């Protein structure tokens, strides 16, 4: 299934991302998915990797979050073997994620030479477009409330990187439509601090 591209995103180079971690501090990536967007995209454009961390996955995150166990990643490559595949998919692209500060912090630690030109957070955007949302702004609840069609990919489980990436993309499209947003408004509402342009002083130009 192809997700049509709204005019506001036409010509923009985007990368929708989700990472899952091993529960350690600092966290190591054990699963990552990237959806590069240069036009209309489908689930076939989604790329994902399972990664064997240096430290074990904690039992708590396996049980309560993503369900990924140490056995699941035992034969997977380490981060050093996949970083060269992941980084080009992110370079010079606007990073999009739900609660994007998590993805930004983890990816910055794993890719020290990488810095996105812009980071847009669908969680921040949802708080504006869907104020006072019952049940909170976790991705699963927002997807349920908006009644997003998440078909188009095989994986249909929250807190798996591919599914959460696809949901974040479909959510972005829905929020843009619901909020009737142009690019400037999207940046103002969804950009993480440090990426949003400074507000113009009241009273016009000085």
UniProtKB/TrEMBL annotation:
Domain of life: Bacteria
UniProt cross-references to SMART domains, sorted A to Z: EXOIII
Ranges of residues in domain Exonuclease: 13-181
InterPro entries tied to this protein: Ribonucl_H, RNaseH-like_sf, RNaseH_sf
GO molecular function, one term: helicase activity
Keyword field: ATP-binding, Exonuclease, Helicase, Hydrolase, Nuclease, Nucleotide-binding
SUPFAM superfamilies per UniProt: Ribonuclease H-like
Protein name in UniProt: Bifunctional ATP-dependent DNA helicase/DNA polymerase III subunit epsilon
Native source species: Kibdelosporangium persicum
